[in-house]
Amino acid sequence: MLRKAGSINNLIYRVTNDVDTLTASQHLRRLRDAGLLEQQGKGSATCYTLASGLVDNDLSRELTEPEKSNLGSHFLDNGLSRELTKPESSNLGSDSLDNNQHQEHKQLVINLPLEEQKDHSQTDERQNYLVQMPEQLRTKIQKLGRRSNHDQVKTAIIELCSWKSLSSSAIATILDRNQDYLQTQYLTPLLRLGKLKQEKPSNSPQQAYRATQANAD
């Protein structure tokens, strides 16, 4: 797979091996730290290539054998499971927050329809917000279902905007709601009630919302 694509990122690894974003990030970092992969780029542009020292040896041939389609199981079958399953190093906490790296290089995922790529990206963006927010807030958001009543959703929005400034797109992603519906039914009414405030001029494309001081407290 690496021979054909040239590189791998979080999205490709996750789709190939059916694992979540954090697990994919952990596996890729461990393989990098073991000297099997080399990291290219940073942040959302992060991807990994096969270590240059492995290109001509037997391990490289095993990793890139054409008839083996599952990269994750292929690694495990070649004695690398100890790298993927050993305890994480102490700096994992800070590294794990950088799990939006899959959003670049999507053109490498040639087997996924465009709509599926979009769905995966939105799921990972939501996961990225969830791992950053306080545990109490994260638990409340995760329990908020599609059938939650109007007041529960309003309270969740206020608490999210008390945590940090968020765009309407980010709030919609976190709450798994349609952005336009969220704007008309929740954000605009909460602005009129003085529960939220806009961080930028009204016509700004980078508009973000923040809970007013009284509600933030």
Distinctive features:
217 residues, mainly alpha, two-stranded antiparallel sheet, 12 helices
Provide structural commentary.
The chain is mostly helical and 217 residues long. Helix content is 55%, strand content 6%. The chain has helices at residues 2-5, 10-17, 21-33, 58-63, 71-85, 92-96, 114-132, 135-143, 150-163, 168-175, 179-192, 213-216, and strands at residues 37-40, 47-50, 196-198, 209-211. The protein has a two-stranded antiparallel sheet with strand order 1-2. A two-stranded antiparallel sheet has the order 3-4. The protein is elongated, with a radius of gyration of 21 Å. The protein starts with a helix and ends with a helix.
In short:
This protein is mostly helical. 55% of the residues lie in helices and 6% in strands.
Layout: helices, strands, pairs:
Elements: H1 2-5, H2 10-17, H3 21-33, E1 37-40, E2 47-50, H4 58-63, H5 71-85, H6 92-96, H7 114-132, H8 135-143, H9 150-163, H10 168-175, H11 179-192, E3 196-198, E4 209-211, H12 213-216
Helix pairs in contact: 2-3, 3-5, 7-10, 10-11
User: Helix amount, in percent?
Assistant: 40-55%
- Based on secondary structure, the structural category is mainly alpha
The tally of beta strands, per DSSP, is 4
Number of helices: 12
Shape: elongated
Strand content: 5-15%
SSE order, as H and E?
A: HHHEEHHHHHHHHEEH
Mean of pLDDT: 74
Query: Can you list the strand order of the major beta sheet?
Result: 1-2
Rg over CA atoms, rounded to whole Å, is 21 Å
Unreliable parts: 66-77, 88-112
Q: Between the first and last Cα atoms, what is the distance in angstroms?
A: 52 Å
Sheet bearing the most strands, described?
Answer: 2 strands, antiparallel
